[in-house]
Amino acid sequence: MAIRIEKSFQVQAPLETVWQLLSDPRKVAGCIPGAEVTEALEGGVYKGVVKVKVGPSVTDYKGEARIDRLEQEAHEIEMTGKGQNVRGKGGASMKMTGKARTLSEGGTEVVTITEVNVVGLLAQLGARMIQELANQLFAEFVRNLRNQLQQEQVYAELFHENSDRRKVEDALRTSEQRLQDIIDHTTAVIFVKDLELRYLLINREYERLHRVGREEIRGKSDFDIHPREVAEALRAHDLRVIETGEPSQFEEVVPSVDGKRVYLAVKFLLRDRAGKPYGVCGIATDITSLKRAEEMQIAVAREREMLMRQRAADLAKANEALRCHLDALASVPELDAFIGQVMVAITRQLGAASSNLRVLSVDQKGMRIELLFQDGSVILPADAGYPERFQSLSVDELGFASLQEPYTVLNLAGPRALEMPADLRAYLQGLGVRTLLVMPLLSQGHVNGVLTFRFAEERDFQAEELEIARALATQASLAIHLTGLARTAKQSAVLEERNRLAGEIHDSLAQSFTGISMQLEMAKEVMTDKDDELLGYVTRAHDLARFGLAEARRSVWTLKPMVIKDSALIESLQTIVERSNIAGRLRCTFRSNLEDEESLPAAVRQDLLRIAQEAISNALRHAKSKAISVNLRSDPPNLILKVKDNGCGMTTEAETREGFGFANMRARVKKLKGTLDIRALPGRGTTIIVRVPLNAASEAARKPSKKRKPLPFPPQKGPE
C-alpha cells in the first residue's frame, strides 16, 4: 500500500538552527516518538529502531536510513529508508524530501513530502488509519522538535555567543555535558520543564526513581509519568511558581521504585538574558525519613497521652470502686452480697471472663468454692453447673506453690500449670481459659480464702492493675473475716441461751419433780392397806412425777451442746439411750458393730447423733413406746442407723411428712446423700432406717451446711 504524506510546520527559530537539527539524523530520530539511531555507518547510512503504537499494541521495526542528497545552501535534504517488523509481520519503505526556508515575519518554515509503502500488519489498518497514525506521529515530532530547539536555546544562552558556530557548538556540548555531570552526581532530584510544563531535562536520580530515560521523557508531562492525582498536585505547584514569578517551596508526595516518597521541592523560573521566563526548574530533596521520624514522634506522643488518660481513668474508676465498696461494707446487710460486689468490681477492673471465690476449710487443709461470677451474676457452684469434683481442692491441687505470694499468674499452657490436676486443667481449657490470676485473701496475717480470675487470652498485668485488685481483695478478706466473727457470735449467743434454758429447767422443773416424787414416796409409806384406792392414785402420781423428772433431765441434756469429737459417736449414742430409760416405764437398748468410726468426719457423726436423738424423742412424746432399740452398723458400702419402737405407730403417711422432727431428719439425710426409710403400722410401732454411703459421707462433710441464694449484681457504672 502506497501513501503520499505532505506536511509543513513553522518554528520560532533561525533557519540555520533549524537546518542544523534537521540535517542531523540522530537529533531527528530523537524527536520521532519511539525512534532511535543505533549505529552510524559510512556514506551517510544510519541503522535504528522504531516503535509504532497502534491502539493498545506496540510494533517494533528495525531498519536503516540513508541521506541521498544534502544541499546546505539550499537547505534541502532527501532521504530514503526501509525496515522490517521484528516478528516478520510485514515491512515499510519510505522516501522523504524536506526543505527549510526563512519566513518574512520571522521564524522558519519546514515542508516535507513523504512517500510511504507498507506491507503486512500495518497495511491491514488501511490508508485512513495509517494517515491518522502519521498525523499523530507528525504532531508529536513537531512538538518534540520545538522542545529540542528550545532546550538547545537554554544551553546556548548559558554561554556567550561566538561568531564561530563550530566553537559555539563545541562549547555548548561541553557545557551541557558538564551541567549534566553536575546534576547527575547529586542525590537530589533535578528537572527542568518548559512553560507548558513538559520536561526538557532530568538528572540521573530522576531516571532511577521513575525508570524513565531523559530522551524518553523529553516533551512529556507529569500526567505521562505519575498517577493523575499526583500529576495534578505537581502541576498546581508549577503553575503557582509561573503565576507569582517567585521561588517557592513545596512538600510533595511522589510514588517511585523506592515506594511512596516525600520531597521538599524548591521551584523557580528560568529566564533568558532579556528576563523573559522560558522554563521551570525544580530541585527536590527526599525528606521521607525525616517525615517518618516526625510522624513517629507524634504517634509516640499521642500514645503517651492516651496511656496517661487511660491510666487516669483507671485510677478514677478504681477510686470510685473503693469508695463504693467502703460504703457498701457499712450498708449491705448480708456480707455475702458485699463479697459478691467485690468480685464483680475486680473482675470488671481486670477485664476477666469470670472469677470464683474459695474459702479455707475449718481444718485449713483445703479450699472450698463458695461463689462464682460469670455471665453478669454472682451465683453458687451448684447453680453454675460447676463440677462437684473440683468444688473442694487441697492447697497443692490449686496449682501454685505458696499462699504467701501477693498474686500468682498461671498460664495453663506453661510448665507451672502441670502442678494442677490434669482433669481440672482440661476443664478450664475446655471453657476457653488461657490464663489464671490467683490472689490469696489475708486477714491478720493468715490466709482465709483465694480469689481466682479467668482470662480467655494470655495476659500480662501492669503493676497499677494488680495494686488496685489487691486493695479490693483486701476488702473481700475483711468481709470473710467479719462473716466468721458474725457466725461465731451467733453460735455463742445460741449456746448461751440453750445453757440458760437448761439451767432454768434443771433448777425449776427438775427440782420440783424431785420434790414431788419424794413427797409421794413418803405418802406411800404411811398409807395402810385399807387405802388401796388412794394408794393407786398416789402410785400413779408418783410414776408421773418420775416420768416428768426423766423428761426434764432429757430436755436439759438435749439443750446443752454436744459436739462430736474424735471417736465419740458410739459413746454419745450410748449416753442418749441410757438417759432415755425410765424404770418400769421405758426400756431403751443400743447395739453397734462399727469399729472404725474415726474415718467418719465429725460433721457426719454429729448429724447421725441428732437423727437418732430426734427419733427417740418422737417415740417418747408421740408413740407411747415402752421399748426403743437403737442399732448402728456398717454394711458396706453403707452405714446404717436403725431406731425401732413398739409404740402406737402412725396411721397415715402424712404424719411422717408433717412436723419439724421428720423435716429436720430428712434435711440431715439429704446433706449426707443418704436415704431415709420410715416403716410404721398402727399399733405395731415405727422403724426409722437411715442409710448413708460411706464414700459420700466424707464429701458431704466438706460442703457448707447452709445453702446460699444466688446473688445477682447489676452492672456497675464507672466514674464519669
If you had to describe this structure to a student in words, what would you say it looks like?
This protein is an alpha+beta fold and 720 residues long. It has 4 domains: 2-157, 2-Layer Sandwich (Alpha-D-Glucose-1,6-Bisphosphate, Chain A, domain 4), CATH 3.30.530.20; 188-286, Beta-Lactamase, CATH 3.30.450; 332-561, Beta-Lactamase (2-Layer Sandwich), CATH 3.30.450.40; 563-720, Heat Shock Protein 90 (2-Layer Sandwich). Helices cover 43% and strands 29% of the residues. The protein contains 16 helices and 25 strands. Strands 13, 14, 15, 16, 17, 18, 19 and 25 form an 8-stranded antiparallel sheet that branches. Strands 1-7-6-5-4-3-2 form a 7-stranded antiparallel sheet, with helices on one face. A hairpin with a 4-residue loop joins β5 (76-85) and β6. α13 packs parallel to α14 (602-622). The chain is rod-shaped, with a radius of gyration of 56 Å.
Topology:
Blueprint: E1 2-11, H1 15-22, H2 25-31, E2 35-41, E3 45-54, E4 57-71, E5 76-85, E6 90-102, E7 108-120, H3 126-157, H4 165-184, E8 189-194, E9 199-202, H5 204-210, H6 214-217, H7 228-244, E10 248-256, E11 259-271, E12 277-286, H8 288-331, H9 335-350, E13 354-360, E14 366-374, E15 377-379, E16 392-394, E17 408-411, H10 422-430, E18 435-443, E19 446-455, H11 463-526, H12 532-559, H13 569-580, E20 587-592, H14 602-622, E21 627-635, E22 638-645, H15 660-671, E23 675-681, E24 685-693, H16 694-702, E25 711-712
Parallel strand pairs: 20-21
Antiparallel strand pairs: 1-7, 2-3, 3-4, 4-5, 5-6, 6-7, 8-9, 8-12, 10-11, 11-12, 13-14, 13-19, 14-15, 14-16, 15-25, 17-18, 18-19, 21-22, 22-24, 23-24
